[in-house]
Amino acid sequence: xxxSSKHPHLMEGSRMSLGSLIMFPVILSLCFxxxxxxxxxxxxxxxxxxxxxxLKEVIVGLPFGMxxxxxxxxFENAMKVLPPDEAEYARKTAGMLWTxxxxxxxxxxxxxxxxxxxxxxxxxxxxxxxxxxxxxxITVDFIKENYGSDVLENGFSQDFPRDNMAVIGNSLIEFxxxxxxxxxxxxxxxxxxxxxxxxxxxxxxxxxHTELLAPPSPDTPLLEGGDVIVLGRTILVGxxxxxxxxxxxxxxRWLKNILGSSYDVVRVPLREDVLHLDCVLSVPRxxxxxxxxxxxxxxxxxxxxxxxxxxxxxxxxxxLTVNGIPVxxxxxxxxxxxxxxxxxxxxxxxxxxxxxxxxxxxxxxxxGGSLRCATQPVIRKIR
Length: 383
Hints:
Shape: globular
Order of helices and strands: HEEEHHHEHEEEHEEEHEEEEHEEHEHE
Oligomer: single chain
CATH class: Alpha Beta
Number of domains: 1
Distance between the termini: 63 Å
Largest sheet: 4 strands, mixed
Mean pLDDT: 89
CATH topology: L-arginine/glycine Amidinotransferase, Chain A
CATH architecture: 5-stranded Propeller
Number of strands: 18
Low-confidence stretches: 1-39
């Protein structure tokens, strides 16, 4: 029986209800897809998943600091990781601000030379589409006011932001450094950390910090960012045998506990004259590593066994050959200095179709670090 023409709205209403019923699953599906894609599109403001992931945002250090005093009890042990000429330079300039350390050949201060190298690095990073941030300057007056005058015996150093922290996944972890020279650096990062780490999706941790002057006990957890290499769910943690620098076994255990079962945290013992893991291991892309095999006390980590290896010797390590920056799987930033032109490593990388970007970093190298040390990735993510 046909519907009554006296009530056309009933017919109209029936059609709309049927249409709505038919369209409802489609609309629901579209809404769900939109919400899902929106959730997937959100990226936390700090994130690192692989050492060789695409570098998007990074902190580059500052050229300010002060060489430790000869009276610092840890000083001589720390000199073991430097070549003899660089160790002697550190002794000659002990207790001096870098602004007062003038190169007689150029008339430039240590600070001026460091910043020239920083700006060259920043230029390369910017040309590759990487956004760069800088910390806030720390002054002697700031240290006296906030930490006390006695702390200046240890000196201070803002050129190497790598060691104060690490980003692992969406977690930013502030470290308790063994090297007293570096302990006040973290104050320079406060604005950057507060702006990013208080946002949705970020886990912000800090290790228990030890006294600035008293030597830590053997069971005190100590970690430095140069020892931490993120390879997906595998985290390599270097442990030098040197008692005055680098990370220790207690620090490795602390990190393993904090990260939990989601990560495989692997301890990598290193010989006494090696400062950090990133001095002897670099990962330009998946399946490729630059390594100094003789630096590893227990042999290479299982994770990189079977990879394509570019091998360097311990003398090259002393001149910071390995401490470069993978920008992505196709670009690698490499340092050189007056002692090592690094042409061997450049040729090996170019054989493997990786474009090498060279930057002179001799002043930083004289301070005991290089390109990876001078940077702290904020966002690095594999494609």
